[in-house]
Amino acid sequence: MTYTDLIGYTASLLIMVAFLPQAYQVWKTKSVEDVSLMTYTILMFGSVSWTTYGLLKSDFPIIITNVTLFVVQGSIMVCKLKYGKKIIT
Amino acid sequence: MTYTDLIGYTASLLIMVAFLPQAYQVWKTKSVEDVSLMTYTILMFGSVSWTTYGLLKSDFPIIITNVTLFVVQGSIMVCKLKYGKKIIT
Any long-range contacts for A50-55 (C-beta under 8 Å, 24+ apart)? Predict the structure, then answer.
């Protein structure tokens, strides 16, 4: 593994773990008012596009990173849709 | 440009624009309670690592995507640090 590869894997790992604190916070507090639904909707399309790109290029790090992101960001979006209703009702 | 390239560029574009609604929302509402500081701190390290990786591989799409992300996610983090103080004081 080269020095460049190591930086690439570190970068992937950081992005994968980055959304865990946000997911934990919205799940724990059930407060999602300040979280942008549009941002997480676009991120869903983003991770699906990246996963497709990774599959077409047979690039495993891209696939695993974006499948993980889809799950974690998706859980934040589910919380937003579920707990965000409080504002309307 | 191949079909795969097109998906890659679409994926990059989606990720670049995704955080704009979140940045606009926190800037407009000045309400950041539900935004995770830890998430945006890790994302900052992530975009710096990705930019370094892009520079080492001379990969322009990776560089431009992550410099953009650094600026937009950084502005969300600045709002969090600035307006988040309201909770303490």
Answer: A50/B11, A50/B15, A52/B7, A52/B11, A53/B4, A53/B7, A53/B8, A53/B11
Domain spans of chain A, in order of start? 3-88
ipTM for the assembly = 0.88
From the candidate CATH numbers 1.10.10.10, 2.70.70.10, 2.170.150.70, 1.20.1280.290, the one assigned to the domain spanning A3-88 = 1.20.1280.290
List all residues 6 or more positions away from A67 whose beta carbon is below 8 Å from its beta carbon: A47, A51
Q: List pLDDT tens digits, range B16-57.
A: 999 999 999 999 999 999 999 999 999 999 999 999 999 998
Contact B34, A34 (CB under 8 A): yes
Is the four-CA dihedral B42, B44, B46, B48 of positive or negative sign? negative
CB–CB contact A11 B36 (8 Å): no
pLDDT digits (tens, 9 = 90+) for B68-78: 999 999 999 99
- Using CA atoms, how far apart are residues A18 and A30, in angstroms rounded to an integer? 19
Radius of gyration of chain A (CA): 15
Query: Across the interface, which of A10, A20, A50 has its CB nearest the CB of B11?
Result: A50
Interface test with A, best of B2, B24, B53 (most A CBs within 10 A): B53
